[in-house]
Amino acid sequence: MTQQGHPKGLYLLFVTEMAERFSYYGMRAVFTLYMVAALFTMDAASEIYGYYTGLVYLTPLLGGYVADRYWGNRRSIVVGGLLMAVGQLLLFLSASVVQPAISEAEGVIDPAVDNQLAIIFMMSGLFFLILGNGFFKPNISTMVGSLYAPDDKRKDSAFTIFYMGINVGATLGPLACGIFEGNYLNPTYFRWAFLCAAIAMLVSTLVFWLLKNKYLRDYQGQPVGTGPTHHEQVQKHPLTRKEKQHIAVIFIIAAFVIFFWAAYEQAGVSLTYFADQQTDRHIFGWEMPTSYFQSFPAIFVVLLAPVMNLVWETLGRFGHEPSSVLKQAFGLAFLSLGYLLIAYGVKDIDPAAKVSMFWLTGLYFLHTLGELSLSPIGLSLVSRLSPKHLASLMMGIWFMSTAVSNMLAGQLATLYPDGSSKSLFGLVEITSLHDFFMVFVVMSGIAAIALACISPVLNRMMKE
After folding, report:
1. CB atoms within 10 A of CB 322
2. CATH code for 8-216+238-463?
3. What is the pLDDT of residue 179?
4. Distance CA 164, CA 14 (A)
5. Which of 154, 292, 420, 422 is least surrounded by CB atoms within 10 angstroms?
6. Per-residue pLDDT tens for 91-133?
């Protein structure tokens, strides 16, 4: 008998993830602006951003291993949430003690201003955020799949609902924290944004801790995420040929996903600089805060997710729904189109000119179509293909591709034009915004074509 609706545990995970993403994206929306306002040059801030967001998605390997082997999902999520709350509070302290460091012109750091304490608090906060996310991120995603039977057809729909929670949080975070956007004359104002993110993280953890025992149960009514028994800890689980092939598919797709997120994650760095410096943000006399642009992708996800689901379902009824792998190739293609649009919009413009909001809004619209074609499909695919005793670890490996891509994103962001000529691996000279955006057009476009070409092979590996 087919079950109707979804278990209540899914909605607990929805709310928990929504609050955590509020915290993460709210902080991320102002983070580079805070660093550039008083602490670092633009290039240095870009590199720090890349290393931070990269390591945030690398530590899920550790968190996934500890959960599978010792703690279980529940304890890992609580520990991770508390560590991230501490990290946000340390960022609050950093912005509380920071001093304005711009002497004559915006972007010129005054060496006479000593902000070492603010930097120490900031780096300590990033450490706790990185470690905490490692325990939180892979385990909450794994628990979604644990609520359902292995062959339950509601699982794909469940991950779409869960992904909506991610993006509701990602919408509200920048909007709320962006209210407290400071500037190079008043960088301490950023502290309220970080405090807002800390409160959201504490609320997220508290809600999960209070309700986990009541609602987090599988289709048979048994609690999920409680951790392995002693027998399960010491027992070996040799992989079958089928399981090895499925793991290989996860690794191959994860490699392609690197190209997607390396370009997509420019939202928190180079595209933030572009929004701040070269986008006309005035709407009927009101100047929109720079950080509000980072809510655009999440808003589009909330609006477009039902439409995309309807498209896939309609194609499926006529036998034309693309495979999961081909959908992800479409995701890379939409990403390339987004950068092609903005590259056209800035072609041959004066470097001092500001362009219409249309170009950046259009980019985020196309990127959202790409995200919906790639990210929730990937989460569902990892959940389906992972061996049960390695579920959290494999989710950590999936997020490892995001770690590599975020580090790459930070390095690529240093190519953002600042009046001097920059080189990409000594092969391409970047002298304008058009050149810079075309790098992502080519990178994601080639990846889309390559993934589409090998999709038949990967589909066979998943079925065997």
Report:
1. 17
2. 1.20.1250.20
3. 86
4. 8
5. 420
6. 999 999 998 876 545 556 666 778 899 999 999 999 999 999 9
Higher pLDDT: 130 or 145? It is 130
Q: In the predicted model, is pLDDT for residue 232 greater than 70?
A: no
Residue 61 has pLDDT above 80, yes or no: yes
Q: Which two tokens stand for residue 304?
A: 């477009």
Rounded CA separation 360/375 (Å): 21
pLDDT at 1 over 50: no
| Mean local confidence (pLDDT), 220-228 | 80
Say whether pLDDT at 175 is over 70: yes
**Polymer length in residues for the chain:** 464
Q: What is the per-residue pLDDT across 251-285, written as a single tens digit (0 to 9) for each? A: 999 999 999 999 999 988 899 999 998 999 999 88
Q: What gap in Å lies between CA 378 and CA 380, rounded to an integer?
A: 5
For 244, other C-beta atoms within 10 Å of its C-beta total 12
Q: What is the pTM of this model?
A: 0.79
pLDDT at 2: 47
- CA dist 295 and 297 (Å) reads 6
* Upper half-sphere CA count for residue 55 (Cβ side, 13 Å): 13
Specify whether the CB–CB gap between 77 and 141 falls below 8 A.
no
**Whole-angstrom distance, CA of residue 97 vs CA of residue 352:** 33
> For residues 438 and 244, what is the distance between their CA atoms, to the nearest angstrom?
38
User: Which pair of structure tokens corresponds to residue 145?
Assistant: 């799949």
Rounded to whole angstroms, the Cα distance separating 208 from 223 reads 14
Indicate the average pLDDT of the chain.
87
R_g of the chain, CA atoms, integer Å: 22
- Distance (Å) of CA 183 to CA 40, 99, 341, 418: 13, 11, 30, 19
Locate the domains of the chain by residue range.
Answer: 8-216+238-463
Whether the pLDDT of residue 317 is over 90: the answer is no
